[in-house]
Specification:
The protein folds into three domains: 3-88, GIY-YIG endonuclease (3-Layer(aba) Sandwich), CATH 3.40.1440; 99-208, no CATH class; 257-408, Nucleotidyltransferase, domain 5. Helix 10 runs antiparallel to helix 11 and helix 12 packs parallel to helix 13 (339-351). The protein is built from 14 helices and 13 strands. The chain has helices spanning 3-6, 36-41, 48-51, 54-62, 74-88, 120-126, 142-155, 171-182, 192-206, 210-226, 230-244, 310-322, 339-351, 376-408; strands at residues 16-21, 27-33, 65-70, 103-108, 115-119, 132-139, 266-275, 278-288, 291-292, 298-301, 332-336, 358-363, 369-373.
């Protein structure tokens, strides 16, 4: 498969799982993505060998097409990817030699099943087949796996004690379990039927059957409402809402905790060009996966500014850009200038209810970058990509301005 084949596809900018398909319709590789569009495109850069590996480059060249399945969130993409890899065992989904260190989720086969996180090596060393009721994994993304468990923990109370319930020999341990029951971390000891239903829902969630869980919870909610047990019904309603609105709670963070990897990173950079305030133009360039996405570059003829006023021109450009809701939002916005430009950009974003970190690139009199005005984490992690975006926006703005002046003359 080549880049030209990719351009024929309408790739969704949503979370999901993608499949590279071989000449005999076999699945060569399965991956997950926060943005299917950005991730799949990242496989078709000129330096795929360096950014990924020779093995992945070989896989792309052997593939004949790409298919995908959209999910409601990246967390669910993680679960679906894990389940599909276990089922299909694609050739190029090579695991690390140290795959025994990956996390697994197990549900124990006990009167009060426990939900435990276990390393691959401990599955064999510490448990036998009869002791495990359900098993999921391996989960290679530790961050997302932990976030999935946090969400499950908020929705469902379950035991994760080291020893099976009822085998505690120490009064201290029994006291800790009783205390955790009292503060709501563990289920009520008397309600084994409800607990078993909770275990079932956790299993269904990790099987990728979230909608079935929602359906069963809705049925329980309606039953309780009919019995006029409205407080209990409300707890089920909250669970349903939380499951329907996971939408990557784990990935909505401030710019100090951007978990998207560089292959998924989208940067938009803006610059203004004019000659003493005449023939003023602006541009937007896009860097995706560390590469210029030239098909997404945009030109703006400034309409509201008649004299040299770069910040006012930038304000107009950003306001017009935000009207295009069909254009995907970036993870970082880069502006050419200083604090004034950064403030203008942030004010426009705030006014439109958009939260995206803004970086300003300060230049010297020869237009060479001197410093970045941004958080420490953004500068440390993405400096090279930010400077690339800024340089490309300046080049594109100057080229557009020159072409416009020639036309006018």
């Amino acid at each position: 498969m080549i880049k030209e084949d990719l351009q024929k596809l309408i790739l969704p900018d949503t979370a999901g799982v993608y499949f590279f398909i071989g000449p005999s319709k076999e699945i060569l590789y399965i991956g997950k993505a926060t943005s299917l569009r950005n991730r799949i495109r990242s496989y078709f850069t000129t330096d795929i060998n360096e950014k990924r590996s020779e093995l992945i480059a070989k896989m792309v060249s052997e593939s004949r097409k790409v298919e995908w399945t959209v999910t409601d969130s990246t967390l669910e993409a993680l679960i679906l990817e894990t389940n599909l890899i276990r089922t299909h065992k694609p050739t190029y989904n090579t695991r690390s030699k140290d795959d025994k260190s990956y996390n697994h989720l197990i549900i124990t086969n006990e009167d009060w099943p426990r939900v435990l996180v276990v390393r691959g090596k401990d599955l064999v060393e510490k448990f036998n087949e009869e002791e495990i009721l359900y098993q999921f994994g391996p989960f290679t993304s530790g961050v997302l796996f932990k976030e999935a468990l946090k969400i499950i923990r908020k929705l469902f109370k379950f035991y994760d004690t080291k020893k099976p319930i009822g085998t505690e020999k120490s009064r201290v341990i029994r006291g800790q379990i009783d205390f955790n029951r009292q503060i709501g971390l563990y289920p009520n000891e008397q309600d084994i039927v409800s607990y078993n239903k909770t275990i079932r829902h956790i299993r269904l969630f990790f099987e990728g059957k979230k909608h079935q869980v929602i359906k069963e919870l809705h049925k329980d909610m309606m039953r309780l409402a009919k019995k006029q047990e409205f407080e209990l019904a409300e707890t089920f309603k909250r669970k349903i809402y939380a499951l329907e609105h996971i939408q990557d709670i784990s990935l909505i963070r401030d710019d100090t905790k951007i978990y998207r990897d560089t292959n998924n990173l989208r940067i938009e950079a803006y610059d203004v060009a004019h000659h003493a305030g005449k023939d003023m133009v602006g541009v937007m360039v896009v860097i995706e996966g560390g590469e210029p996405a030239k098909s997404e570059y945009k030109k703006f003829k400034i309409k509201t500014v008649n004299k040299a006023n770069d910040t006012a021109a930038l304000k107009e450009i950003l306001e017009r850009r935000l009207l295009h809701t069909e254009w995907p939002y970036p993870q970082i916005i880069v502006v050419d200038g200083s604090t004034a430009q950064k403030n203008v950009a942030e004010n426009v974003l705030k006014k439109n209810g958009v939260v995206i970190p803004v970086v300003a690139v300060v230049k010297d009199e020869k237009h060479r970058p001197q410093k970045l005005i941004a958080t420490k984490s953004l500068k440390e992690k993405y400096k090279d990509y930010i400077l690339l975006a800024n340089a490309e926006s300046h080049r594109f703005a100057v080229t557009y301005h020159r072409s416009k002046r020639k036309i006018v003359k």
